[in-house]
Structure formats: structure tokens, C-alpha cells
Amino acid sequence: MNKKYIIAAAFLILGAVNQSCSNDFVDVSPTEAIPESALGEIYNNNEGANNLVTAIYAKFLDWNMSTFAWIGVTSIVSDDADKGSSASDSGSDKDILDALTFSASTPSFKELFASNYQGINRCNQALKYLPQLDKADSQLRARLAGEAKFLRAFMYFTLVRSFGGVPLVDHVAVTGVEADKLMMLTRKSKEEIYAFIEKDLKEAAEVLPTGTGGARATKGAAHALLAKVYLYQKKWQLAVDETNLVTGYSLTPDFQEIYKVSGENNAESIFEINGSGGTAGRAIQQYSQVQGARGTTGWGWGFATPTQSLYDAYSATDTRRDATIIHRDMTLYDGYYVGPNTENKFYNYKAYSSNYRDQASTDVNIRYLRYAEVLLIRAEAMNELGQTSLAIPFLNQVRNRAHIGDTPASSQGDVRADIWKQRRLELAFEHDRWFDLVRTGQAQAAMAADGGKKFIVGKHELFPLPQDFITEAGGLSQQNPNY
To answer: What DSSP string describes 338-403?
Structure first.
């Protein structure tokens, strides 16, 4: 193919040296091939500008971005989920992730690393070309640039929590330019990555629109994500300040309603990845199928099954338990009966699709930022600042929605423990548990309690960088400790 065509070959840091990722390429959609010379003709309008950024959101629908590897490195690796499925099905490396015996050659880490850089490249391409579309509305272009910066920050937040320092690719690289080769293959410190994330989110918040509903990035989403970024860095007052800027949202009265189609992008939703079902749908590829019940009366592969410890962590009156965990001999909200002979005892209810239960393309969304989490971030940060009595009412809003009453805790330490527990119960299977265990120092004890798994302090706080990347970097980047 003539290299003067905009192609769908997504940028991979893995293989970057030999891959053309020059100005000639724009990753607009999975199928289009459009001459770059026609960019001004075809995309120099409002619809074209929108398409450049819609392509970034579309990356989150991909298998390598949001499905098997992501489920493995966020849920299965944690104490919230077991590998599940059948004993004979390793899921490529899900048994290794579950046992914490992974290495730099474990495939899921390569998927995690590469997919996020593919998405970052789409962000960089959009940010490069949007200013050139002078026939598109200027306010629209500013908003779209804000969305691209929000999404780039989101992906870098995933990378820095997973690997620590990573390469900081902040523009479309040009083949043959030595500085760009170094940019793609040289790790920056985690502090530099966090600073870049903060800058992107602050700039995004300035131009994004207000309003609720998580289908596209908004001002509230930028402030909520920035609050979370500050939380992970223990910048407590800054976290509080950002949560105070997340306004206009409210808790959904019935917790289970959040995870139905009718609850998508509702008043609690701050940011979510949207999927539509059916063979022509733009679904998160097999997200539901991978985690669906397996065996008799089942419909899926049965991976990432909730652990007994997660089930037991909920009290009997906690309405979140039976909205989060499917169990044998259970009738689901749509009347579907899960019989007593499924292969595994528990399954992830938040991944359930009523309309397209047994289809690869389902209408399930991934809820990434909800107002409940903003309340918990505010409560945690205030408690760490010594404002325990002021923090408790925000914690209680989340508890009372779950019908478990006000917290019995009053001391700073007890309130801290309850906030951490409520994060687990509230956000189970929303891809935060492993990172929360690491950031709060609970990982070693939690994994020991989860079947005696060995979390090695000084090693497992970070995942290993993919061996292919380390080899290709040729000394420009070093592996994480003890891998």
C-alpha cells in the first residue's frame, strides 16, 4: 500500500523502530484507507473532526484493550476474582496471573502495553490534525481536543499504575527522526508521567462541556479523573479540591439499575465505555462472553469468577452483593434462571447482557467513573487530612444507598479501613481492585488471604514491562525490579 494513505495500522511501541508511524498515517477507523492529501477535503468539516476523536473511543471496544488481557490484569490477578472457566482452560495466561507467577513474557502485559499506546497514538493524531481542519467549527475542535487529552490521560493513568515509568509519547512519531525513536523507547519516571497526565486533564477541563452522562468526556469527567490521579499520589487536598468541582451528579437509588441498559449514562455516570449489541453493533469485543456463566444454563466462557472472599465481604443486607455476583440457582433481573450445575459457583453480574446474553457483541458498557467513587475519593482524602468527622457523611451516602446504614467507625484508622472496604464492594469488577490493593499497602495480606498467594513486596507493586519492548529498547529502558 502506498504510504501516502491513511491506514488502520495502529501504532505499536513494540516494533516501533521498524514501523512507519510518520505524518503520512492517520488511524481514523478500523477499515478506512484515505489518501492523506484528501484529509482537508474529506475531514475538514464538523463530521470529519468528530470522526478523528470517535476513533479514539472506538479503541476501547477492542479485544486487546478492554477484554481478555484487561480482565486478567485487573480482576483475575486480584482477590476479587479467580481464573474460573474450567481447570483445563488456562485462558492463555490467566492461570499464571491468578497465581501471581507471571513474568515479562506473560502475553497479557504485552496486550496491555501495546493497546494503550495504540490508543495514545490515535489521541496524538487527533491533536495533530484537528488544528488543520479550519472549515470545522472552532469551538467543536477545541472540545474535541479536550476529549483527546482526557482519553490520552486516561490511558497513561492505566500505564503508570500498571508499569510505573513508561515512554512518554506526546506526538506522532516520524520514522528516521532519532529524537522520536528515543521518545518511543526510553522510559520516563512515574513522576513525569503523572505530571503529564495532570497537565492533560487540566487543559481538558478548561474546554470540555458541563453536563452529566458518561458517553463522552465532560468537564466533570476531567475533574473526577484528576481527583483519582491525585488520590493515587496521596495529594489529598488536591484530590478534595477536584471532587468539589464534580457537580450535577447523583447516586442512582437502586444499585442494580446502574448496570442495566436503562442505567447507561445516567445521572451517576461520569465516564463509561459504550457498547451496542448485535452483529452490526459496536460492542466491547466479547467482554460479556468471556465472563458469562459456563456450562449448563450458561452462555459464556466463565472467566474472572468472583471469589468466595468477595461474596463473604458483603453483608446479607447489602444490595450490592446480588447485583454484583451471579450465583448458581439464581433468577436474574430479566427472569433468566441460572441453574445449579454451572461450572463455577459465581460469575460477574456487572458484565451481564440481557438482550444479547450469548452473543459476542453485547450492549454492556464498562463503568469507569461514577459519582459514588467521587464521594469515596473525597471521604478518603478528607480523612487522610485529619478531617474524619467531615469525611464520614460522604462515606455514609455510599453505604446508605447499599442499605447497610451509617458507618460504625469514628477514628481515623477505622474510617480509613471502612472506606477501603466500601471501595472494594462498590467498585468490584470495575477494574480498580488490584491497583487499590497496591496503593493502600494491602496487597500482601490480601493475596495471602486469597488462597495463600505470594505477593512479593518490592516486585509485584508493578507489572513487568513486556520483554519484547525491553529487548527492542536495547538498554534505553530497564525492566522493573526483580523480573
So the answer is: E-TTBSSSEEEGGG--STTTT-SS--PPEEEEEHHHHHHHHHHHHHHTT-HHHHHHHHHHHHHHTT
Torsion, CA 308, CA 313, CA 316, CA 318, rounded to 10: -120
User: Cα–Cα distance between 326 and 336 in angstroms, integer?
Assistant: 11
CA distances from 459 to 100, 430, 450 (A): 11, 24, 18
Alpha helices by DSSP H, listed for 82-235, are 94-99, 107-129, 138-163, 178-185, 190-207, 219-232
User: Mean pLDDT across the stretch 271-295?
Assistant: 90
Q: Distance (Å, rounded) from C-alpha 340 to C-alpha 478?
A: 50
Report which residue type is found at 478.
Q
What is the predicted pLDDT for the residue at 38? 61
Could you tell me the end-to-end alpha-carbon distance of the chain, in angstroms, rounded to an integer?
40
CB under 8 Å to 238, separation ≥6 — which residues?
Answer: 227, 230
pLDDT at 289 over 90: yes
Distance of CA 333 to CAs 256, 259, 274, 330, 354, Å?
9, 11, 21, 10, 9
Supply the pLDDT for residue 43: 85
C-beta neighbour count of 360 within 10 angstroms: 17
Q: How far is CA 428 from the centre of its chain?
A: 13
Q: Burial code of 158-188, b = ≥16 C-beta within 10 A, e = fewer? A: bbbbbbbbbbbbbebbebeeeebbebbbebb
pLDDT tier at 278 (50, 70, 90 boundaries)?
confident
Q: How far apart are CA 246 and CA 371, in angstroms?
A: 8
pLDDT in tens, 304-348: 999 999 999 999 999 999 999 999 999 999 999 999 999 999 999
Lookup: cell for 177:
527522526
C-alpha cell at 339: 441453574
Which tens digit of pLDDT belongs to each residue from 118-146? 999 999 999 999 999 999 999 999 999 99
The residues, ordered by sequence, that sit 6+ positions from 256 with a Cβ below 8 Å of its Cβ are 319, 322, 323, 333
- What is the distance, to the nearest Å, from the Cα of residue 181 to the centroid of all Cα atoms in its chain? 28
**Residue 426 CA from chain centroid, whole number:** 16
State the residue for C-alpha cell 452490526.
Answer: 280
Q: How far apart are CA 367 and CA 260, in angstroms?
A: 11
Q: Are 250 and 267 in contact (CB under 8 A)?
A: yes
Residues 166, 160: Cα–Cα separation, whole Å = 7
CA distance 344 to 165: 38
Tell me what pLDDT residue 414 has: 98
Listed in sequence order, the residues at least 6 apart from 30 whose beta carbon sits closer than 8 Å to its beta carbon are: 8, 58
